[in-house]
């Protein structure tokens, strides 16, 4: 269940890294589109911050799940061989 919800979030784009903004190579174009380029750069930095926040949250969620999964794994190891196979 957790994997599915996390995977769905990734597909939705909330945990995908942002694409860097396009920067023209011609200096006349840079001057002509200065406002747009600055806006794109600001949006990129905002998206990058959001991306890192999402990564941090995903990390916290997995860390919180580790003890439970470890306990489940230990219970599996305690089962007799004939039950596991």
Question: What can you tell me about this protein's structure?
Answer:
By secondary structure, the chain is mainly α. It has a domain at 26-84. Helices cover 78% and strands 0% of the residues. The two termini are 25 Å apart. Mean pLDDT is 84; it is low at 1-13.
Task: Give a short summary of the structure.
The protein is an all-alpha fold and 85 residues long. Helix content is 78%, strand content 0%. It has helices at residues 2-12, 27-32, 34-78, 81-84.
Summarize the helices and strands and which ones pair or pack.
Layout: H1 2-12, H2 27-32, H3 34-78, H4 81-84
Question: pLDDT average, as an integer?
Answer: 84
**Count of distinct strands:** 0
> What radius of gyration results from the CA coordinates?
22 Å
The biggest beta sheet is recorded as:
none
Order of helices and strands: HHHH
Properties at a glance:
0% strand; mainly alpha; 4 helices; 78% helix; 85 residues
